[in-house]
Structure formats: structure tokens, C-alpha cells
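TL;DR need C-alpha cells for one chain.
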Amino acid sequence: MNRIFGALFIVTCFFANSCTKSKPEQPTPPQTPTLSSAKEIVSLRMRKWTGFGFTASQETVNIQGTNITVYLPAGTDLTRLYAQVVISGVSISPDPTVVRDYSNPIVYTVTAQDSSTKQYTVTVILSSPSMVYFGSSNKNFYALNITTGALQWKYTGTSTFAYSSATYSNGVIYVGSGDSKVYAFDALTGSVIWTHQAGNTGVESDAVVVDETVYVGCNDDYLVALNVNTGVEKWRYTTGGNISSSPTVGNGKVYFGSSDGKVYAVDTATGALSWSFTTGGMINQSGPALSNNVIYVGSRDGHLYAIDALTGLQKWKLSSNGISFEQSSPTVSNGVVYIGAWYEIGNFARKGSFYAVNANTGQVIWEKLQNTAISSSPSVGGGKVFITADDNNIHALDINTGATAWTKQILSNSGSPAVIDGVVYTGGGGTGFFYALDANTGLVKWQFATPQGLMTSSSLIITPSGQVKHTGDSGQQN
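>> reply
TL;DR here they are.
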């Protein structure tokens, strides 16, 4: 009886289960995804067209709402920049990785996943270190506040910084030293970005920067082209003598003189010789000036030369009656060439003068400071031309007549002056000071002590408005 009951229970349960219909599973209705409305520019950094960027001290980025302001160093080429941008959206237009002209603000549109958009205005502003830079024979390179003369930073090396004058580009200072190195300093902090060993017998030539290349001569008889960001050598051109003459660049050529008595024009990209011009004596500190496709340069043979920059043919030459022009770089301003003559080599009892010369004809407009040897380069500003001389004075002369406006004894020891915004900056190695002088009166605005620095280089000035001014060593042109 019990076995029959158990069997019936099992069958009943099976029957009951087999007869119950299960409801089909209902499909889950599709979920509509929520699209993000995020459309922010999270970060932005500028880069040069070559791919190199800026250091943290060189670039400041302020993002306030939809306005982005980027501060870059004075001298930066705003016409060839691109941006590295991080966004919280799906796209940004126009493409920030394309090289563009940032001289004016650029509007970028960021699009979110939900197709909403937001516009950002990117403005690039050039900031300025507002400093004056120079080197000294006491092995220091200095950066001073342009207004007060307070020390901002200095670099102490192993040899003199008094011969090679500094150049500025994109927040970096470039200068040569007696230790045969070319230095790249951060303009704001003085930290060394790179150095390049340029031979073994010293660098007296100024380093000149054009289109991401540094050009500098060395006393090992060659001019070298260096990568501006790394200091790596691109090419070199060897001459028959040391190169203390500072180069100048134009027309796709770098122009420089050599102690072998020649002026050279070399292709900036390859270092191939375009032409050379032979003078009758060595070219020492006189750096060629380029103006209106004419090269002006002084030689030991007692002549100032005007040479066609495209062909290398002589246009005219001016004689100083045997007094060497080798130490002074010409400055060209408003069709006038200003240059100083030094001594007669072999007869140092004969001293030179200071000349204003018609740039087109080579005719002397006026000659002043007769029998006063000049081993520095002039600077022009405010209707005056400023020159230091071996009579231990700095002279301010009227540009039209050569009449003396004022004279001050500073014992410059060949340091060249530079003038901008009514102030003359010049070294007085013999007095142990670097000076800022009122350009109209010669009165001292401030002075900075350079202990045991008997010589100083020429000045490099960066004003609060971002103007960059070099002295005449590389052929100042106004």
C-alpha cells in the first residue's frame, strides 16, 4: 500500500509540472545612453614650430572661464606656434596642432558628446625679463634689474665673459666664454640649459640667433652653427684665422670676418661658401653690419669697407690713413655709418678718430674725437651717438654734427655702450662698476659693483615693454 502511494505521488508531481506553462521572458527594453555635455579645455601648452616647447619659467598659462592667456618670453616668434591641448570633449576646432599665427587671439570650439559646444579665446602675450645682461673679466655673467640695477642672478664660470656679448631669443640668453664654451641660460633664472664646447682657444665672437640656429665664431678658426634648443652642432665652416668678429645674418647667409683678412658669406642652412672678400689686413672685433643689402666692416688695413651682400663685390672703401678699424663694429642708422678707428699697428703713437660716414657714398659727414683711440662699438638713440674711448671717457655726440653733448669718465676698457628709452648702459671696468646713465645728461641713475672685473662685455637690454636691444658689436641698425 505504501509503495503504490509513493508511485502515485511521483506521477502526480510530474504531471503537474509538465502541464504548467512557463511565461516567456520579456526582453529588456533598450536603454538610451546619456551623452556627456563635458566640453572643457583642461590644459594648454604652446610649442614652437620646430616641436620644442618652453620651460616652466618661460611659459605661464592662465585659464579663466573661456579666456586662456599664455605668457611667453619676449622675442618669441608668435607667427609660428602650435598648441598641445587636453580637452574633456570629443573634438576641438580648428586643429590646435597646426602651426598658426598667434599674433592675434584665436578662438577654439570644443564639442561635447551631446553635440553642445563651447568657445575658448586663446591670447598669447610676450612677457619680458626687464633686465640688462653683461659679462665680466671676473668670470661672472650678470643679469640686473633694468630699473634699479639690483642683481637678479649671476653665473660664475672658469674664465672671462668680457669678450662675447650676449644675445636673447625665446627666453634664453646665449653667450660665449674664454673657456671655449657657448652657454644657453634661462633668461629669468640663470639656470644653464645647455653648453657647447666650441674649440679649445676661447670664444670672443657674439652668438647670433636666427630661425632656431645659433651662429658663433671661435678662436679655433671656424664658425659653427648650433641647434638653438640643444646646442648640437649642425655644421661648421673653417677659415684661415681665428674668428672674433661677430656674425650677422640675412638673405639666407651668415656674414662674418676672420683674422685671415677675409669677409665670408656662408649659406645658413648648409654652411656652404657663397662668397668671400679679401681686405688688406685682419678683421678682429669688427663685426659686419648689414643694411640695405650692403655689408659694412672694418679692417686692420685702415679701411672701412662697403660690400654688396649678394655678390661680395666692393661698393666703396674709406681710408683712415693707416689707423686700424679692426676693433670697432659699424653701426648703421638712417643712412649713416658710425665707426671708430683704433691705432696704427706698429706705431701706437698714432691714434684714431670717430667717424660718421654716408652709407651710400662712403663720404665722411663728420670726424670727431681726433687722436683718440677707439676700441669699442657705437650705439645710437635720442638724436645722439654714444661711444667709449681709450681716453677713459664715454662720449655723447650729436648725430648730425658730432658736437659733444656730454662726456663722463668711466674707464670702460673697451666696453661698448647701449642706449634705449633715454638710458645708456655701459661697463666701467677700470672703476669697478657697471653704469646706467641718463642719456641726456650723463648723470648716474644707478651703478653696480663688479669686483676685480677690469673689463666688461657690451650690454644686452630687455625693457619692460619687451624691446630687445643689443649694442653695436653685431652691427646695430636703427
